[in-house]
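Quick one, tokens below:
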């Protein structure tokens, strides 16, 4: 098998043998990651997050971890004393403002870019494996490619400040020469349990389920491009249970890999296919209504995303991707209908 140049020869030593830090660990992908680590017997985990006033604290309840620290307190104490929390073998930096509609550019620049720079420097300084969340939003509308093997990151044009804040750190890591020593994961459209708190940033599966309960119908945006019919805009949808397996892979079997990696299913599916799978999981006939896309979104909307996962596969990741209909069925029947979060007693969790 051909191995990408960024994957060095490795003894495949796991980075999960010591203490683990998960930033954003009460959030969607972060809490799913802690759940998956627990499945491997890892409990010496420090979680940081901003719990705020929403309900994401509920994601923590079924999980096993050593400590929880508010993210601003963690950041402040690291400034004062780099060893304040002891030594870590792995740092999964998933904490960020993930709202693609956030307009406070200064906040995004500090929270998503500045804090990531500080954590990366700190993690490398104590020889901890540093794995962070980049985003497929860095690719913009996709016309400049979605290639995680390309070195010319400057060619990319993110469509919103969220994507740009992620892009800024990717560029910094490359310029600083640390990108080969860390891993940035470009998550595509991840959906699944533990996302209830995300409001408008929830996946269509979550939103559609609530719409079906309320009205029996699902609303989708009309296409405002002639080359895409209504509902046939395509995205790379990835189940969160697959996303966290890919994430952990870079701390275990690919513990010496470095650089940017697409994290997706490798297959583009239409919104119609996703919506029909939701109705099928509920045993209902599809009832779909098309509505106009808000003007504020039309210039920032991605009509097609699809992850090229060949670079990920070249690191030795061989797990099959959960088929879309199967993933939707598991999410709907074992989590949305039951209300169970990851780690709670539920078939498939």
């Amino acid at each position: 098998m051909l191995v990408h140049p960024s994957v060095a020869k490795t003894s495949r030593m796991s980075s999960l043998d010591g203490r683990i830090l998960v930033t954003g660990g009460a959030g969607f992908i972060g809490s799913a990651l802690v759940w998956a680590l627990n499945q491997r017997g890892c409990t010496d985990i420090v979680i940081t997050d901003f719990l705020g006033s929403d309900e994401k604290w509920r994601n923590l309840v079924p999980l096993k971890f050593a400590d929880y620290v508010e993210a601003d307190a963690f950041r402040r104490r690291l400034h004062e004393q780099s060893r304040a929390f002891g030594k870590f073998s792995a740092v999964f930096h998933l904490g960020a403002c993930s709202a693609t509609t956030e307009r406070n550019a200064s906040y995004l620049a500090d929270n998503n870019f500045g804090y990531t720079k500080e954590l990366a420097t700190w993690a490398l300084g104590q020889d901890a494996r540093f794995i962070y969340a980049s985003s497929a939003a860095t690719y913009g509308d996709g016309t400049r490619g979605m290639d995680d093997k390309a070195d010319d990151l400057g060619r990319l044009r993110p469509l919103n400040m969220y994507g740009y804040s992620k892009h800024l750190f990717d560029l910094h890591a490359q310029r600083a020469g640390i990108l080969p020593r860390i891993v940035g994961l470009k998550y595509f459209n991840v959906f699944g349990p533990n996302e209830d708190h995300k409001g408008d940033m929830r996946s269509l599966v979550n939103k559609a389920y609530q719409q079906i309960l309320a009205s029996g119908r699902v609303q989708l945006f009309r296409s405002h491009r002639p080359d895409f019919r209504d509902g046939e805009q395509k995205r790379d949808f990835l189940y969160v249970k697959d996303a966290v397996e890919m994430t952990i892979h870079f701390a275990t079997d690919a513990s010496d890999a470095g650089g940017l990696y697409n994290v997706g299913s490798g297959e583009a599916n239409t919104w119609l296919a996703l919506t029909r799978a939701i109705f099928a999981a509920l045993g209902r006939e599809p009832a779909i209504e098309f509505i106009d896309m808000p003007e504020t979104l039309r210039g920032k909307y991605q009509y097609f995303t699809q992850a090229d996962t060949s670079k990920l596969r070249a690191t030795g990741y061989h797990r099959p991707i959960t088929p879309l209909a199967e993933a939707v069925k598991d999410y709907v029947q074992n989590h949305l209908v039951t209300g169970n979060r990851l780690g709670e007693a539920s078939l498939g969790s």
